[in-house]
Amino acid sequence: MSKKSYGDKSLALHRKLKGKLGIQSKTPIENKEDLSAIYTPGVAEVSLVMSKNPKLAREMSIKSNAVMVVSDGSAVLGLGNIGPYGALPVMEGKALLFKKFADIDAYPICLATQDTEEIIQTIKNISVGFGGINLEDISAPKCFEIEERLKKELDIPVIHDDQHGTAIVVLASLINALKVVKKEKDNIKIVVNGAGSAAIAITNLLMRYGATPKNIIMLDSKGTLGKHRTDLNTYKQKIANKTNGSKTVGGLEDALKQADVFIGVSVGNVLKTEWVDTMAEDPIVFAMANPDPEISLELSRKTKIKVFGTGRSDYPNQINNVLVFPGIFRGALDSGAKQITEEMKLVSALAIAGLISKKDLKPEYIIPNPFDKRVAQAVAKAVKKQVRK
Q1: DSSP letter at 61?
Q2: How far apart are CA 261 and CA 53, in angstroms?
Q3: 3-class DSSP state for residue 107?
Q4: For the stretch 367-386, what's the b/e string if a residue is b when 16 or more beta carbons lie within 10 angstroms of its beta carbon?
Q5: Is 198 exposed, middle or buried (0-12, 13-18, 19+ CB in 10 A)?
Q6: Which CATH number describes the domain made up of 54-156?
Q7: For a Cys-Cys bond, which of 20, 167, 191, 359 suits 205, CB 3.0-4.6 Å?
Q8: pLDDT in tens for each of the 389 residues of the chain?
Q9: Among candidates 234, 243, 226, which has minimal Cα distance to 190?
Q10: In whole angstroms, how large is the CA radius of gyration of the chain?
Q11: What value, to the nearest 5°, has the Cα angle with vertex 245 and ends 239 and 248?
Q12: Among 315, 259, 251, which Cα is nearest to 283's?
């Protein structure tokens, strides 16, 4: 089915259903006895108990299994700054995936402001009824400050999924792709095309995993990042100070020479086949721009690319956050974690990669299918084990 066909189908579905979510009661309300227990007068006792000890909200309220999926609509999918109404159907979809894959009650919250301080204060003010916060589709660099502040000022897990969910699933994919091509993490040259929130999170997690920083080159729209650049924001500058040990200057064509891995979190159709020819043998290419990857599947098959992955569900090796966020929040909620730590991210990636056995591993199968029921369970188990440590 073509992109337009999926769009037409989605429009018809949303008009018919008027959204994708609803609320379902956990208890019957059939008579006055039921009503008296779940509402007045019985609920007053619950209110008094929780007012005296707010920690009991995790045991006695929706907080135990509720996640806020929140966006200001400033960086929606590949659509850009289309505002809160543009973000709403995406947040609904995300909330639906939380329920489908981890039985988490997630709520789409779209804010009619793009002011950093207003976003932080609004989320803090409405966080009472939530056990976790999933930040979504918020543009860089403000997404960094929002996440950092909320992590410091709240006692529930906060994660910007565009950053860390993407980074985790990329690392999981790379772990298995390296097994296919028989290369080691500390000896490979990695090119990250894009320098937004996802690219920075990917690079940081790859370095934490053991990729050699000087062998990583990141590019933004103006070319390679490095100490030669004087126009970088704080977050890009931190990456530039650690990476690009070869001091490569120029664009993507220059960076790709003898590269083992290309990770694209940029725009479609920017990776040329003749540039792939200059990469090392058996290159790994993760072209994750949406909806059109940096190089099409058809063109990739005409090159020497050994392992190819995208964000698309109609191509092999779908590198998608849905493999991460349901399980990582399931584990965090069940364990009472107050933070999503760097160690949790690493063990989540290892858990996802570990689901593909050595005998099943092949170039077109390095990452589990989003509908593989083992994924959320494996990630949740790994997170809970890490919390116990």
Answers
A1: S
A2: 52
A3: strand
A4: bbebebeebbbbbbbbbbeb
A5: buried
A6: 3.40.50.10380
A7: 167
A8: 666 788 899 999 999 999 999 999 999 999 999 999 999 999 999 999 999 999 999 999 999 999 999 999 999 987 899 999 999 999 999 999 999 999 999 999 999 999 999 999 999 999 999 999 999 999 999 999 999 999 999 999 999 999 999 999 999 999 999 999 999 999 999 999 999 999 999 999 999 999 999 999 999 999 999 999 999 999 999 999 999 999 999 999 999 999 999 999 999 999 999 999 999 999 999 999 988 999 999 999 999 999 999 999 889 999 999 999 999 999 999 999 999 999 999 999 999 999 999 999 999 999 999 899 999 999 999 999 999 98
A9: 243
A10: 22
A11: 95
A12: 259
Dihedrals phi, psi of 263, to nearest 5 degrees: -120, 115
Helices of type H across the chain: 3-17, 32-38, 43-52, 57-60, 83-102, 116-125, 142-153, 161-181, 197-209, 234-242, 252-255, 273-276, 297-300, 325-335, 342-353, 374-388
**Which residue has tokens 């907080």?**
63
Domain range list for the chain: 54-156, 164-310
54-156 matches 164-310 in fold:
yes
The Cα–Cα gap between 369 and 380 comes to 17
- Between CA 152 and CA 4 the distance in angstroms is 43
Q: Which helix (H) or strand (E) holds 196?
A: none
Residues that are catalytic: 39, 94
How far is residue 145's CA from residue 139's CA, in Å, rounded to a whole number? 11
pTM for this predicted structure: 0.94
* Distant-in-sequence contacts of 256-260, Cβ < 8 A, 24+ apart: 256/191, 258/189, 259/189, 259/190, 259/191, 259/217, 259/283, 260/181, 260/183, 260/188, 260/189, 260/190, 260/284
CATH top-level class of 164-310? alpha beta
